[in-house]
Amino acid sequence: QIAEGEIEAEELDMNTKIAGIQCDQTGEYFLVAAAFAADSTLQGSTTTTFTYVDSEDPRPVDVTIGLETPSARWEKDGYDSKNALEFFVYGSDLKDVKVAIYKSSEYSPQLIDEEESVSDDVLAIINEDIYSGIYEAEEGTEYTMIVYASNGFESIYKTATLSTAGEGLVWNSLGNAEYTDDLVSSLFDADNVTYDVEIQELDGEEGIYRLVNAYGEIYPYNSPGDYDDSRDYFFEIDASNPDAVVFGQQSLGLDWGYGTMEAISAAQYYINKGQPETAAGLYGKLQDGVITFSVPKSVIVFDNDGGYQANVNGGFKIVLPGAEPAEPAVAAVVAAGSEIVTGDKATRSETSYVRIAPATQTIIGESLPRESKEASFTVVSFDPQNFKAIDNKDSKFSIMSID
Predict the structure, then answer these.
(1) Is the pTM of this model over 0.90?
(2) What is the domain partition of the chain in residue ranges?
(3) Superfamily name with CATH number, domain 62-163
(4) 59 pLDDT exceeds 90?
(5) Would the CA dihedral through 357, 363, 367, 368 be positive or negative?
(6) Buried (b) or exposed (e) across 92-118, using 16+ Cβ within 10 A?
């Protein structure tokens, strides 16, 4: 219609970068931009829509929401104050509505933006009647309902909070664990970091643990604004089977500009997809109070752009409070013919190096462990470049050199 002269349009200078538009009343506007050649031939066009609300003509959003203990009509379906919540939403002249319910411990306002809008049928019910339903919940747990609503001119967020009856889950703090991160660090080719994080265990469920705010303020690579501090983030790990440790997909509360990061163990990911054979080689382990995911790329991290293989170095580790992992071996120098007592009592000289493996008390070359069972060893002769046999008699070991 513009090209045909049916609609008069304002002509803009080609050098103008920004053009102002004056709206005289509240309404939805349809903007058309068209480009013409010197001979007035239309070269192209684009359109957009926007709404304008005059200060003298406000259009407030009309919506009411709520959470309640399930009414008697739900009893026949087995719902009561311990295992469910009843929700409701109603309003008028609404064009878009989103509804979600979260555990309050896992709630943050931006989560609603990731939810889908209600269907046209549900929207009609909200505008004409009351949309209500039942939400299955856990005993003794607080929940937050959040609703986004827009009438096409303005929008609003509303929340409601309610707890189910009962005691709920009880998590007992064990103190601080020593946590080594290889999830986020390996995604950015950064060095792994080890730091103390509070760890809790589920009461009555041995091996179910959770780290508290592991990727919050205490995470060494974080700066203010890199993490959500509006609530606690719990990183739950199921180590009830020490040979098959897993964890489900969960938010880390961390956002470095790519969207909030979530993590899941690769084993659990493939179990969810019905591929247990693929999961078999990707489980974590719990041994001597230490949880490890030593298989490289055994964790998947998600952000807004998709999923990435993490734990690239297989360095994920949680040392539970009170655990004493084996310390790395340290070098010791011994002379041929001298007696060696394990521990820190080795006779030292400038001749050669010997390693005694802590678990097997076997000399394997190059260094001596810091701690191991005390035993006596005699080095008959030792060539660090050429040796092949160990003679074990009454805790006396001899390294036999070869020519």
Answers:
(1) no
(2) 1-58, 62-163, 171-319, 326-403
(3) Immunoglobulins (2.60.40.10)
(4) no
(5) positive
(6) eebeebbbebeeeebbbeeebeeeeeb
